[in-house]
Every structure is written in C-alpha cells, then in structure tokens.
Design brief:
Number of strands: 18
Number of helices: 14
Strand content: 15-25%
Distance between the termini: 67 Å
CATH superfamily of the largest domain: nicotinate phosphoribosyltransferase
CATH topology of the largest domain: nicotinate phosphoribosyltransferase
Largest sheet: 7 strands, antiparallel
CATH class of the largest domain: Alpha Beta
Helix content: 25-40%
Length: about 400
C-alpha cells in the first residue's frame, strides 16, 4: 500500500530551477545546442492588466524573488517592495545571460503574483476598514506550505495582525486570534470554554469571546460579559450566512444590549465571509474584522516577465514581442499615483508639481550579490500605509 505524502517542492528544487515549466528547460537546451547559450538579455517584470475596478496594486514578493537570483551571474533592478504601482509600470528587470535564469521565471512569477495579489487585496481591505483593526484569518484556504508567505504578504498590505503560528519563526511576528467554535463545542458549554481561555491567556492576549455557537448572539454576548467582567476585551461574531440575515442589524442589537447592561467598553469584532463591501457597511459600528478567504484568494494581479532588450555587438538592442513595450526602463516618482517611466539611464522630465522626481528603481543584485539592504516586514508595511494615506488624501481632496 502506497504511503501518503505531502506534494511540496523542496526549497533546493525551487532555487535550482527544477520547479519550472518544461518549455523553459527545453529553451535552455535549444539555446545551448544552437550556440546561443551566452546571449545576454534584459527581462522586465510588469503588470499589463489589473482586475476590474483596480486602479493600483502593491508590489510584494521581491525578497523571495531575489533569494532565487542570488549567486547567479545577473544584475537585478527593482522598485522597492511595497511600492504602489499602476498598470504597465515596470517593476523589476533581470539583466544577464538568459540561460542562467530562464528556468527560474516560473517560480519568480509565481512568488510575485501570489504575494502581490494578496498584498493588494489586503491593502484594499485596510482602506475600506479605515482605523478599524483587520486580522488575516485565511490560512485554512491555502496550502500549508505557503502559510508564512501569505501572512507576510497580508502584513505588507497593511493588516494589523495574522493568525499563523509559523509567523513567529519566519516573520518575527506574534500571531493573533481568539478561539474556534471547536473549543466551545468540545466543552459543550460556552461559559466553561470562555473561562478556561481567560484563565490561561488573560494578560497575554486580549480576551475576545466567540458568541454565536449555541444561542443568539445578543444572549451569548451578555453571558460572556457577565461571566468575565473586566477581563473581557471584546466579543466576536462569526455568524454563518445561513443564520446571518442583515449583519448590521445583529451588530447593532448586540451593541445596544451590551451598552444597556453597562458594558460600554466591550469591543465588537466580526468575521466570516467578510469582504470590502461588508466592511464598508459595518465599519462605523464594529471595532475590527477577521478577514480570511477574500484576502487568501484575491483577484489575480497578472504579472508577466518579458525580454525587452538583447545584447548585440557590444550594445543593447530593444526587442520585445508585440503588445509589449521594448527597451529596459526605470521608474521615477513625483507623488503616489504619479510616476514617470523612462528608458534606463535616461533623465526624467520635471514633475508637474515642480518637485524633483525621486528614482524608485534601484540596483538590488550585482553579479549575483545583494547590494541593497532589505527592509523588515514592518518597515514595508509602514511604507505601504504611508502611500495608501496619500491615495486616500488625493481621492478625498483633504
């Protein structure tokens, strides 16, 4: 009898280029046989299309992409991870002998698409939530092998916390979360489950009681408040859609009942099938959201990699397939939402606001060696939030 296994690519398989599409392996072999194995190119990473309704995206996954390119005979230019970008704006350029990185294209694009799509959706959720807390609870929707990467991307996008235990090890972030229905069901009594949770974790994490397992949300919220008193930080409503009705009405009822009993400081959190529209409807009556699937499975940011220049006779010749913009490029920023794209090495025109354009494109890897300091997840998150603030300010005119 065959023993079951986990179907996970080993890190060494990814770094070596084994985790690739067969046509890239065949391309490398053909070029070598044809005597073109040493041809140098510049390959550009770009997003030529966005999901419907998207005006911007958050570039994420750069650190993991760079990890695949270290030790290769390549130079890598890129905008910083966390940069808000528009469609058709170059993000990264890989310069070197094509056969040295051809088989890495599949893995690089997989990492960049995955992280950028999650970070972008997380940023949109954070914008919708305003000053309300947003926690990412979407790991159960993903293969466990990518949990740290998904938590990292969602944090880059601006969420306030993640639930993954492995984030302690990989990101240096303490996971956040309350309790599952399973805990209460095993006890068979929500009061006992809440009491044990408070006994073990009071002072270590905010005590938030899940209040929709057996009874009405209003009844269980009052039960939790009466039982835990000042230990209770908040209550979480994870009401299933089959019983939900209009969620705002349920929240307002719970809030009213708690205030009527004198529990004015008890916070209210909502989770379960939450997306941007629900957040906008509820953000003025709740204190925070647990968001899972809508961040874990976001609309795809269609990032591609295309050769845009080939080295010939000691110089670079612009060359690209139709529909793509030939020639290597760099990005300069006037302000968030107003970037200038120029030919690599070309001086940018002045900004419309009179400011001097700031160069976004940087050299990260030179001849396979990292030459640019990589920021922490927290630093990238702050960079994203500052840009989102400018976007919001520009949209509201305030």
């Amino acid at each position: 009898m065959r023993k079951p296994r986990l179907y996970i690519a080993d890190p060494e398989e990814i770094l070596s280029g084994s985790a690739t599409d067969v046509y890239f392996s065949r391309t490398r072999e053909i070029l070598e046989k044809a005597g073109l194995g040493d041809v140098r190119v510049r390959a550009e990473v770009n997003a030529y299309s966005f999901p419907r309704g998207y005006e911007w995206a958050v570039f994420a996954g750069l650190e993991e992409a760079l990890a695949m390119l270290l030790g290769k005979k390549v130079n890598v230019y890129s905008v910083p991870e966390g940069t808000l970008f528009r469609r058709r704006q170059p993000l990264m350029t890989i310069e070197g002998v094509y056969r040295d990185f051809a088989e890495l294209e599949t893995a690089i694009l997989g990492v960049l698409r995955f992280a950028t799509s999650i970070a972008t959706k997380a940023a949109r959720i954070k914008v919708a939530a305003g000053d309300r807390t947003v926690l990412f609870f979407g790991l159960r929707a993903l293969h466990p092998a990518v949990q740290p990467s998904a938590d990292r991307a969602s944090l880059i996008g601006g969420v306030d916390g993640v639930s993954g235990v492995l984030s302690r090890k990989y990101l240096g972030v303490e996971p956040r979360g309350t309790m599952p229905h399973a805990l209460i069901i095993v006890f068979g009594d929500q009061r006992k489950a809440w009491s044990w949770f408070a006994e073990l974790y009071y002072g270590k994490t905010p005590i938030i009681a899940l209040v929709d397992t057996f009874y009405d949300e209003r009844i269980e919220a009052l039960m939790a408040a009466d039982l835990l008193g000042e230990k209770l930080h908040g209550v979480r409503l994870d009401t299933p859609s089959s019983r939900r009705g209009r969620m705002r009405d349920i929240v307002e009822e719970v809030k009213w009942a708690l205030r009527l009993r004198g529990y004015r400081d008890v916070k209210i959190y909502v989770s379960g099938g939450i997306d941007e529209d629900q957040i906008k409807e509820l953000r003025d009556v709740v204190d925070g959201f647990g968001v899972g699937t809508s961040i874990a499975w976001p609309p795809n940011i269609d990032i591609s990699m295309d050769i845009v220049e080939v080295e010939e006779d000691g110089g670079w010749t612009p060359r690209a397939k139709r529909g793509k913009m030939p020639g290597a490029k760099e990005v300069y920023r006037c302000r968030v939402g107003e970037d200038i794209v120029v030919k690599m090495g070309e001086r940018p025109p002045a900004c419309r606001n009179g400011r001097e354009p700031q160069k976004l494109t940087r050299l990260y890897v030179k001849d396979g060696v990292l030459v640019e300091k990589l920021p922490s997840v927290g630093e990238i998150r702050e960079y994203v939030l500052s840009q989102l603030g400018e976007i919001i300010k520009g949209e509201t005119g305030s």
